[in-house]
Fold Cyclin-dependent kinase 2 interacting protein.
Amino acid sequence: MEGQPDDITQSSAKKKCSALTGSARKIKDNAADWHNLLLRWEKLNDEGFKVAGRIVELRLMRSQHDELLLLDSTSAPAGSSSLQTGGPPELQDECCKLKDIVDKMASMVMKMQHLMASQQGVQDLEEFQFRAGGRRLPLFHSWDTKAFGDSSRALLESFTEELKLKQMIQEELAHTWSSDLCMVYLSCWLHQPFIPPDARLTLEALLLETGHRPL
């Protein structure tokens, strides 16, 4: 997360969880994985914004260049000039970089899906062991097992929708002629509308509950 130190590594999480076993150990490890994935996502988002900005700059420069060539071709005698076709190598390179970033984000969402499946497995096991009433005492401070699953599901839904937006922007950005629409795409990429503040609060609550953040 932006502004949060990268202080929850898998090794440190395991060290802190050495006294935990079973469901508690798995849930705490999952919380550390969520934190690390979201940190990596933010880094990729920053990198992607820089690359997208260069794509927009190159695209608009190309658009202006084509307009000038069009004016020259209409004012000059027939056959004296012709429009250039294709994009500059620089634009193609930046598009490849942005696609690589989005592919990495897609891989991260797949890992989030695995975390959700793992959390659901813990919940199913708890329901089998303790029946419908569930575990009487919380695993950590106050949450029951279902609350951890609800938090994971909320995070996964947010990042799944945000990935769809990123994929659309990556596909459309280099083909957009309108400077206004380009700015909208850039703003959407930067501000991530499908990852609202309450998603970040959900992660912090998850880290607090599992002991990764001091109360």
In short: The chain has one domain: 23-62+87-210.
